């Protein structure tokens, strides 16, 4: 149920971002508490009956309005028309703010919005970092990067090279870039202070090795180490570029064997990611972001601008040089990026199409893994970078939660029993040691077995379909303990209408 209190939060004009735009010296988390927590007891007394639809006898007219209508009224959907299924899910999500508005990690008026997706990436982790690197290098004003785990690696070097390129380009324009980073590297001091400012001598050395101020003279880089002992880690992985582009990815910044996913998002929803970035940073902004008063909702969508769409100096058949840590190749737009990545897979001189896929999936930690799939398996080609046709903004919601959630077992069983086909794509053995800890509900195999044995009839069991990830060049799953072909993607698709990209394991 969407209460009057939640409705009021969603309809007010002030947000953390707008308040910081007026006074950047404020602390984002304190602004949030002032807006949404300080005066809960006055919500009704401070509003007229007309503004909240409260009748003379104290009964809210919203009690008579359908849940879907309330959800529709609590978002900024523009000309888009959210589906009934979308509104049902969104309504449930915003209802949870009643007990803990801070758990949303975004100002409620920004939780529901619209956006476009010009690019999705499903690929080994280095390909995600290559796109992240390109977006950073093309930035003009500011960058916010959040990740759970960062360690010096080939993956991180792709990003740090881009920060150096960013500084170089800014210097050529006579400008400076503001860049802020948040990661989670546990520190005993975080028992008292969750957000620790990381000094340059620490973040530029050791296992992190971000660029020093001397290396990036035209970038004001600040780093925060954010961890909440006992309560949970900072597990977000997203980046906001110039308040116009948001990158949502499943990966940390490290070398591993994972298949990962990144979604490139533009449009008004970027303001929501921006607000979440400010709350994740949590501390006063010094220096402030230059675009605090320049909302994405009032700006052209970058991928739909003439200078950003379709511009390419290469023929579609050209094989472009690989973007590596020792030889960076920065592209002018998404199409050229896709051409550089996709065009090399089956043209890498390996002698077979499967060999080309193997070369692409092999990373620094497992360069010698051998693919055994037949050539016919490559008839449906591997396409890591999927550029999508231009489309009108669609309804989107930014949903965060506390570091725990309701068990999924019973809802999945309920869905199967009412006739829904549930298909689970899992990674064999992923994080088994962690999942065997108390209250984690067991490994993927244990969970699948428990699901199956909880179903009563053969008909119900036929509607449960469990698959284990098999690399594009393989014929069978490889257990995660071997670190050769793992999958770290978190994605849910419902009725081919709703896509939910997540950042957490279940």
Strand content: 15-25%
The number of strands is 16
Give the biggest beta sheet: 12 strands, mixed
Q: Average pLDDT value?
A: 91
User: If helices are DSSP runs of H or I spanning 4 or more residues, what is the number of helices?
Assistant: 16
- Which regions have little confidence, pLDDT < 50, spanning 5+ residues? 41-59
Structural class of the helix and strand makeup?
A: alpha+beta
Helix content: 25-40%
Based on CA atoms alone, the radius of gyration comes out at: 24 Å
Shape: globular
In quaternary terms, these chains amount to: single chain
Report on this structure:
The chain is α+β, with helices and mostly antiparallel strands and about 500 residues long. Among the domains are: about 5-115, no CATH class; about 405-500, no CATH class. About 30% of the residues lie in helices and about 15% in strands. It contains 16 helices and 16 strands. It has helices spanning about 5-10, 15-20, 30-35, 50, 65-75, 85-95, 125-135, 155-175, 200-205, 270-280, 335-345, 355-360, 410-415, 430-435, 445-455, 460, and strands at about 110-125, 140-145, 175-185, 195, 220-230, 230-235, 240, 245-250, 260-265, 385, 395, 420-425, 465-470, 485, 490-495, 500. α5 crosses α6 (about 85-95) and α7 (about 125-135) packs parallel to α8. The longest helix has 20 residues, at about 155-175. InterPro entries: PLipase_D/transphosphatidylase.
What's the structural blueprint in terms of helices and strands?
Layout: H1 4-11, H2 16-22, H3 28-36, H4 49-52, H5 67-73, H6 84-95, E1 112-124, H7 125-137, E2 142-146, H8 154-173, E3 177-183, E4 195-197, H9 200-203, E5 219-228, E6 232-233, E7 238-241, E8 245-249, E9 258-266, H10 269-281, H11 334-345, H12 353-361, E10 385-387, E11 394-397, H13 409-417, E12 422-426, H14 432-435, H15 444-453, H16 458-462, E13 464-468, E14 486-487, E15 491-494, E16 498-501
Parallel strand pairs: 2-3, 3-5, 9-14, 12-13
Antiparallel strand pairs: 1-9, 1-10, 1-11, 2-7, 4-5, 5-6, 7-8, 8-9, 15-16
GO molecular function, one term: catalytic activity
Protein name: PLD phosphodiesterase domain-containing protein
Domain PLD phosphodiesterase: 230-257
């Amino acid at each position: 149920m969407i209460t009057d209190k939640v409705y009021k939060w969603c309809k007010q004009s002030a947000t953390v971002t707008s308040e910081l735009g007026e006074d950047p010296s404020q602390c984002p988390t304190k602004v949030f508490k002032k807006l949404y927590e300080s005066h809960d007891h006055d919500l009704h007394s401070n509003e007229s009956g007309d503004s909240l639809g409260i009748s003379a006898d104290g009964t809210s007219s919203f009690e008579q309005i359908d849940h879907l209508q309330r959800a529709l009224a609590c978002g900024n959907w523009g000309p888009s028309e959210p589906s009934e299924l979308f509104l049902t899910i969104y309504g449930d999500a915003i209802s949870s703010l009643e007990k803990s508005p801070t758990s949303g990690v975004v100002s409620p008026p920004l939780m529901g919005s619209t956006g476009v997706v010009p690019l999705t990436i499903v690929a080994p982790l280095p390909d995600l970092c290559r796109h992240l690197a390109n977006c950073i290098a093309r930035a003009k004003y500011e960058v916010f990067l959040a990740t759970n785990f960062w360690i010096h690696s080939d993956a991180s070097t792709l990003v740090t090279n881009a920060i150096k390129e960013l500084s170089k380009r800014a210097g050529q324009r006579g400008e400076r870039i503001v860049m802020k980073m948040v990661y989670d590297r546990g520190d005993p001091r975080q028992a008292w202070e969750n957000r620790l400012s990381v000094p340059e001598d620490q973040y530029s050395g050791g296992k992190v090795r971000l660029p020093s101020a001397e290396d990036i003279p035209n970038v004001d880089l600040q780093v925060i180490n954010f961890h909440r002992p006992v309560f949970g880690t900072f597990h977000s992985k997203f980046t906001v570029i110039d308040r116009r582009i948001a990158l949502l990815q499943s990966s940390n910044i490290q070398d591993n064997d994972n298949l990962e996913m990144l979604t490139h998002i533009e449009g008004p929803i970027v303001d929501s990611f921006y607000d979440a970035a400010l709350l994740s940073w949590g501390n006063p902004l010094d220096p402030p972001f230059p675009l605090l008063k320049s909302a994405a909702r009032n700006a052209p969508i970058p991928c739909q601008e003439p200078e950003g769409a379709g511009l390419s100096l290469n023929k579609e058949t050209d094989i472009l040089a690989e973007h590596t840590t020792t030889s960076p190749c920065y592209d002018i737009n998404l199409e050229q990026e896709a051409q550089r990545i996709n065009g090399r897979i089956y043209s890498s001189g390996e002698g077979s199409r499967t060999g080309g896929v193997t070369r692409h999936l092999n990373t620094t930690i497992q360069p010698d893994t051998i693919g055994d799939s037949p050539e016919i398996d490559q008839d449906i080609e591997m396409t890591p970078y999927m550029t999508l046709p231009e489309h009108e903004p669609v309804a989107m919601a930014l949903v965060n939660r506390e570091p725990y959630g309701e068990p999924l077992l019973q809802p999945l069983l309920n869905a199967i029993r009412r006739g829904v086909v549930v298909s689970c794509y899992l990674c064999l053995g992923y994080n088994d040691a962690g999942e065997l800890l108390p209250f984690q509900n067991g490994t993927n195999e244990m969970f699948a077995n428990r699901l199956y044995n909880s179903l009563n009839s053969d008909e119900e069991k036929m509607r449960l379909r469990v698959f284990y990830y098999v690399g594009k060049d393989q014929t069978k799953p490889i257990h995660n303990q071997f670190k050769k072909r793992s999958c770290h993607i978190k994605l849910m698709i419902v009725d081919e209408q709703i896509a939910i990209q997540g950042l957490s394991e279940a």
